[in-house]
Structures are given as structure tokens and as C-alpha cells.
Pseudaminic acid synthase
Amino acid sequence: MNNKFEIDGIKIGKDERCFVIAEMSANHLQDYNRAVEIIKAAKWAGANAIKLQTYTPDTITLDCDNEYFQIKQGTIWDGTTLHKLYQTAYTPWEWQPKLKEVAEKEGLVFFSSPFDYTSVEFLENMNVGCYKIASFELTDIPFIEYIAKKGKPIIMSTGIARMGDIQDALDACKRMGNENVALLKCTSAYPAPFEDINLKTMVNMKETFNVMTGLSDHTMGSTVSVGAVALGAKIIEKHLTLKREDGGADAKFSMEPQEFKDMVDSIRIIEKAIGNVTYDLTEKQKNSREHSRSLFVVKDVKQGELFTEENVKSIRPGFGMETKYISEVIGKKAKKDIIKGTPMSWGLFE
């Protein structure tokens, strides 16, 4: 798999800044104007991309209320059916081309998670720059092959995947000749408990599958996302809403704009701090090194007098000989009179 690729002209991967995705999901609350405001908030908060979900209740499930379609897995959505949930959560398709125009005017990458073949073709007609495979679709290998054949970069979440599932999905992309694939470590719990995140798995995925990795984060707050970047994440995805108190299917684990901005700011800070492997000193470090310890004459010394541990010591600042040479100074004779506070140097003794 490629460790770097482009989405709508933005380079993602090795040696590049983290690609930050704001997930709108159901937070528009079926209000087009609110969807537009979320896109603008994503731009203001520093996101690189806005992501939607492209489905209708009938393209993702059945309108059926038997036991198989009841939500009862201990989620925040328990007590309803899949079809009823998606009826409130889906993003109307007629909005999406217009929202793409808004996003691109704002300078954001616009893309989506498709959930069936018709939604893929719909997004193809919109000319999106990449595709997102949601966690619950990762095991649908024929569907992944269909998307991979489009030749666009693919970002996959692994929230319900075992190692074999991930390998199968990557193999499907390779069979279709598509190696522009990234994996997002994900924990499909909403919100996700910190102790279930296991960021080390993200690092291992990169090593095991030789693929770009990142995090789709459903925890509360920004700490986990920033930590993931410190561990090498090149993509971060977080849900964004205007106000959690406004409600909605995903509101409880979504960020508000200021929180999202604070997260992005922290990510950019940690990226600067990660830097590169170097043992060179910056100019500020070189200046600070002047305050390190070195050998100084600490008492007046007459010509011919011996240097001792009483008249030569290791002290700050660092303008004298390095302290490791103390044994080569002690017992030697002074070449001239030396006053207290003189940096020790090779030319001062015989």
C-alpha cells in the first residue's frame, strides 16, 4: 500500500501534516441551513475536510421491526429500529451536491461514506475525491471491491474488524489495483471508553499491513486524538455539531466548534513538537548552552602556583574548558597570574 497519496490536491501521509476530517453525520438534524453552518464551522475550526454519509433508510436496511432489526446492543440508540433511526439520521441526497459546492467554496475537501452501490454511483457523479468505508461495511468485500475499482483513495474504519477482516479488505483493494488506502483505528462504541481505544493497535496496523494509519475517534474530548497524532496518525476523524444540547443521533459524542478548533490547534502544536530525529542544537539551544557548567578559576592564582580543587572548579556558565578535563588541569602550574572568575583554558597552564 502507498504511504502517501493525494485527495483533491492535498497530500496525506508520510512527512505530511495530519488530515483532519469533520464528520457531520446526523448532526444537521434534517435542516439544510444547519448543514451549511456545520461546514462553515468545520472550516473555522481548522478541519481539512467535511464528511457526510450517503444512504437512505431503504438503501441501508429494511423497514422491519422484528427482533433482528431492533437496536438493543446497549447503545445510545436502544429502543428503536434501524430503519427508524436512519430515517432521522440520513442526509437527503438532493442536499449533497449543493453542500459539496459550499464545502469547496470554503476550501474543504468534501467526501462521504457510501452504503450501497447506488450511493457510490451518486457520489461518482458528484466527482468526490475519495471514499470512506464505515466500520460496519468493512466486512462487505464485494462492496469494497466495487468502490476500489473507481480508483479513488479509500479511508477505512476498523471499528468492528478483526485482523483477518482488515487483511481481506486490503486484499480486495489490491485485487482491484487500488493501493491508495488508509486504515483508521476505531472503537465502535458511542461514546467510546478510553480504556477500549488501544492506540497501540493503530501503530501495529501500520507495521503489520504496511499502510497509512489514523484514528476515527468517538471518545469525549480531544486527548485521544492528539495522542494518536503523537503516535503517528496521519488522519483524524471526529464528529462535529453546532451544539450538543440541540440533540440528534450523534450529538452525545460530537464536538462543538470551539472544542474542534482547540483539538486542531493541539494537533498542529504536537506535530511541531514531534519534529525529526536530530541531535543538532538550535540557535536557542546553543545560546542556552552558555549557561552549562565549565571549569573556572575561582581564586586568584599566582604565576607558578599549582592548580588545585580549591582554585579550579566546575561552575556555571559554560565559557571555560569542559569539565571532563579537570584531571588534566589539577597539579599543573599557572603560566601567569590569573584573577578569580577567569574561564579555564589550555593556554593558562604549563
Q: What stands out?
A: The domain at 9-55+90-274 is CATH 3.20.20.70 (TIM Barrel). The chain has a mean pLDDT of 96. The chain has twelve helices and 13 strands.
